[in-house]
Amino acid sequence: MPGERFFDTNVLIYAFAEDDPRSGRAEALLAGGGVIGVQVLNEFTNVTRRKLRWQWSDIEAAIKVIEDLAGPARPLTNAIHAQAVALARDHSLSFYDALIVAAAIDAGCRLLNSEDLQDGQKFGSVTVENPFRP
């Protein structure tokens, strides 16, 4: 079910990584469909440009593939921002992680695929699942 799973940035990075043992799993997840948010695209763009030194044309091509598989990124709204502030405060999350959790909640997803948060941790109706755990 495409709307059941929300992808954190690391899933997208690994799906496009070369010679990374997590790539196959990330590619399969992305091919299976899911939801992404604007914050995830922002982080993907930042990491691929700054850390991986991709060219803009490569970033744009990757984003097209991501959106073909996951659909358009869900917008970042004032309501998501406010919920992220509360999540960061109440759960001691980084603000940027809280934005992703809030976006997953707003999208009505059941799972948040991320290796940055505690596997099995619940935030309302969303459960964190680390798809790369051994």
Q: How large, in whole angstroms, is the Cα Rg?
A: 14 Å
Instruction: Indicate the overall shape.
Output: globular
Main sheet record: 4 strands, mixed
The CATH homologous superfamily is named 5'-nuclease
Average pLDDT level: 95
Strand content: 5-15%
Oligomer: single chain
Q: Major sheet: order of its strands?
A: 1-2-4-3
CATH topology description: Rossmann fold
CA-CA gap between termini: 24 Å
Q: Which structural class should the secondary elements be placed in?
A: alpha/beta
What's this model, at a glance?
By secondary structure, the chain is α/β, with parallel strands linked by helices.
Explain what you see:
The structure is a single chain. The chain has helices spanning 9-16, 23-31, 38-51, 56-70, 78-91, 95-106; strands spanning 5-7, 111-113, 122-123, 126-129. It has a single domain, classed as 5'-nuclease (Rossmann fold, 3-Layer(aba) Sandwich), CATH 3.40.50. 54% of the residues lie in helices and 9% in strands. The longest helix has 15 residues, at 56-70. A hairpin with a 2-residue loop joins strand 3 (122-123) and strand 4. Helix 1 packs across helix 2 (23-31) and helix 1 packs across helix 3 (38-51). It is of the alpha/beta class. The model has no long low-confidence stretch (mean pLDDT 95).
